Amino acid sequence: MPADQPLVVISRSGAKRWVSAADTAARKVGLRVGMAASKAQAVVANLTMVDADPAADAAALERLAIWALRQYSPVVAVDGTDGVVMDTEGAEHLRGGEEMMISGLVNSLRGRGLTARAAVADTWGAAHALTRLTGAETTVVPARGTTKAVVGLPIHCLRLPPETIQGLRVLGVETVGELSAMPRAPLTLRFGPQVGRRLDQLFGRIAEPIEPLRTPELVGVSKNFQEPIGAAETIAKYLRRLVGELTAKLEERGLGVRRSDLFIYRVDNTRQSIRAGLQKPVRDPARLSKLLCDQIEKVDPGFGIEKMVLVAVMAEPLEERQVASSLIEEQVVDVTPLIDILGNRGQRLYRSTPVASDVPERSVGRIAATADETGVDWGVKWPRPSRMLPRPEEIETMAVLPDQPPVVITWRGKRRRIVRADGPERIFGEWWKRPIEMEAVRDYFVVEDEQGERLWVYRSGDGVDAGTGSHRWFLHGVFG
Amino acid sequence: MTHAQTSKVIDDLRERIAHLEGSIARKTVVLPFGVAGMDERLPGGGLAYGAVHEFAGGGSGTVDGAAATLFAAGVAARSKGKVLWCLTRPDLFAPALSQAGLHPDRVIFCESDREEDVLASMEEGLSFGGLAAVVGELVRLPMTASRRLQLAAEKTGTMGLVVRRWRRQTEASDFGNPTASTTRWRISVLPSEPLPTAGVGRARWLAELMRVKAGESAEFEIGACDAKGGVCLLPISRDGQDQTSWRGSRAS
Questions:
Q1: Does residue B14 form part of some domain?
Q2: ipTM given for this complex
Q3: With a threshold of 0.80, does the pTM exceed it?
Q4: Domain CATH for B80
Q5: What is the phi/psi pair of residue B235, to 5°?
């Protein structure tokens, strides 16, 4: 069906049929959520109406939550009937910060044809309210800025039953700020304790733990402690035991771990989590426990730990393989364990690879450290500097145009007389990348000064035609 | 005491010392330069595997470390296997490493935000055991850190190469402070090989072996790494106008 055709979803309660969701086209022609179905039909002729299927919606939302669990954070749950809530503390730096994380999230959902709004806030309540009430696609509330962000919001964002909201409206309360300024005792007497609790949860005065989503196919093991534990060695000991149990369970199913989470429940009813990711599925207890034990220092045991749960969030089939034991053949060392260890510590691991481009700064690409060997090399015969400046620095020169290398250059305030030089190596702009490079030319020279320092300089332009460049000189690299 | 007896006593003492040192007792394997003049100045006839070697630049090379990096890349290129290269400043230009004989498939880069992470990654790489060499670009290398690296290298027989680069040229006096490295080198640039025509010839370096365990320091004038990572020793400069000819080469 065409995208500009209005579409609404119709829910029924008893004999009443009403619009429970409307797409952008439908909203444009004036259809609103909550409208009676007959009225909507009266507004738009040939309106496409789809019957609501809450069970399928819930299943789809759960699938979305499981996707988020694998991608973003170990603690993910379904929020109401229309949202997903995640505890991203300690996970956002892996995606370049909060801002980048949620804009990436919204974009990847858009790529799958879903329209989403996301917010990051200190509390579940605040994030819930901001996602649904601000028009912005992404909202980030700075730490401790919750109060300022939510006081002006209307009270129906508080996750209270509709009759309570209605009752508060009758009293003349419209915004969260007004509600929180009211005396608590009469409110509780009239509406029950839920109003006060929701307010406190919104402002972060009382904790609201997220019960993480678990599905039957997730393999997990847990351990309860009679007495709370706290010492790092004790945690490591039980962690190794849990890893042993988990790998035994995975072996039964022929799976290997790609990503595993350890949840640590403290006696004061708070929870912490550690996540370890792997490049390839692994079932080796020693490797997995090394990755998790590396992060024990991040755990704050507080008054003690009463429960530990280890879950293989992402598991992939892992077949046993026979290794040819040849004495003659050279053994190829698999470096994935090392890459896993360093990668889980947050280091950026990569290999460089040639890119077909003559422009020096574009000729190097990055590939994953565990990617297959490419076997290709740059194959440039001209010498290349071992240090490349992040961006070319302008230098002062004395040079004869068009083809002669400079005689004297001044770089970073130091004047150097050039004794030897090689060049020019002419490099043309790549017009298919940027139209501005249509006629651009760079002439590179290797120059050597009296002390023997070898530098890589270039002139922007071919020395004759001003259209090819500014004819200014730049220093681009330092040879050894 | 006759000569035979003396050597027997010395051998006995050596054995006892080796026993005390424990893991070092096994025979050290070396990576020779393939240049007789250089190898004979190094104990064992080359750079030892299972040890940490330090390289710094001279002059403005203390900041960019361009020559020292290439020298280290040449050493890594002549070893066999994968190389872990830990750094904080990503200004290394990989085609130059490839021209020094280090194929891009062999180098795994590990980029960190902090200097301490470079040390930690290097130690992890050295104690992993499956690598040929671990290269790290560092500003500071305190005694404790260098000893940790040295011990990790000894345990597995992986070669640790530290390229020292400083933020300012004046900070390079830090290279005078002792570390636990087995050898320490300073690589400075020299005017390149003169060609019969105009142009820049093969780059040349002054390699100063400033400290070596169980050996004496030395200076070499060498030709920069070729496409296989090999260096060569130059004859004493005959060019009368060459400013550096007075240094000569004590090694050749």
A1: no
A2: 0.83
A3: no
A4: 3.40.50.300
A5: -70, 160
